Amino acid sequence: MVYEMEKNIPLPEYAGNGKGRAKGELRLAVERMEIGDSFLVEAHKRSPLPKMAQVLDIGLTTRKEGDLYRVWRYK
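and the corresponding C-alpha cells:
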C-alpha cells in the first residue's frame, strides 16, 4: 500500500480528556465523590478502583453487599 500525504487537513475535535481517551462513567463518579460518599458497583467494576485512587490521591475502600460492592471515599 502506498500512503498519500495530505496537507492542511484539520484535526477533528476530541471529546476526551486530552490524554488519549474519554473518561469512563466509573472514573467520573469517583471524581465527583466527597469524603463519606459511597455507591454500589458490580464485582467486575472494582478492579480499576485502586489505581484510580492512587492517581487521584484519594482513599477508597469497598465492602461486599449481597451480589454488589459498596465503594466509599474516606480520604
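(Above: one complete record from the training split.) Residues 25-73 form one domain.
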